[in-house]
Amino acid sequence: MSRIVKAALIQATLTGGNPEEVSVHDIKKAMIEKHVGLIEQAAAKGANVVCLQELFYGPYFCAEQEIKWYDITEKIPDGPTTKLMQELAKKHNMVIVASMYEEEGTGVYYNTAAVIDADGTFLGKFRKIHIPHVQPGFWEKYYFRPGNMGYPVFDTAVGKVGVYICYDRHFPEGWRALGLAGAEIVFNPSATVAGLSEYLWKLEQPAAAANNMYYVGAINRPGTEAPWNIGEFYGTSYFADPRGQIMVEGARTTDDIVIADLDLDQIREVRNTWQFYRDRRPDTYDSLVAP
Fold first, then answer.
1. Is 54 a catalytic residue?
2. Separation CA 185–CA 157 (nearest Å)
3. What is the pLDDT of residues 241-250, one digit of tens each?
4. Is 51 noted as a catalytic residue in this protein?
5. For 147, which of 127, 160, 261, 286 could close a Cys bridge (C-beta 3.0–4.6 Å)?
6. Which domains does the chain show, CATH number per domain?
7. Beta-carbon contacts of residue 291 (< 8 Å; ≥ 6 apart)
8. Active site includes 225?
9. Catalytic residue chosen out of the listed positions 102, 125, 140, 166
């Protein structure tokens, strides 16, 4: 009998007002409320697992360099948003992957995804490894310390789940590390704009799915965000299967819940055809980790 997982990706436009006119806390509150409703909708559609977009409870604030955004950091798992996600996971019997702005200690902050099991148990977290600092307006080194927890894979109620965050997706080594650790579904919550990365959006992640023979859920926020207007966040969240085929795709400019039935048994079928893990030659790869 096939292992079918109904998986969902949530992409959502910014709500709560212009960051120049309202407090960061008001925006955070409005975005959390919006996502609670979207999670409810995903549950009503039968989703067993859902992943939210990068830094889901705010705008993509890295478009500027302002200390005020440090105020929306939280402890993970002891902060209120993680606790709320645990309650929602238990209520809906749903695995939740939620990307937040983590405070490890005073002045030490990470771009982090919390992974919560369907019974509400906090399973752990992934901290974004690769931190960009590029134009136009992706000033992430101002906000985030590079992740230091490796590439964990979480044994959830729906299977083995891994996470890679946004800019990480440009680095194939982490995709492979997640596969070697047993990942069956890897989520990549992102915030990325047209004109910069769109030509890569449907190349890299389907290729990662095919190269590593697992499912990839690629999430991107939609719309433009004032006052920065650094570009159009082009949505089009999608799932790619272990052959690298895009299964379903979301809207470009609007909120959307992208749902697909993932047959985890297809992973074995594909791996029995393409023996990439058997035929690896790690003894020849020393140069890949040279400084």
1. yes
2. 12
3. 999 999 999 9
4. no
5. 127
6. 4-289 (3.60.110.10)
7. none
8. no
9. 166
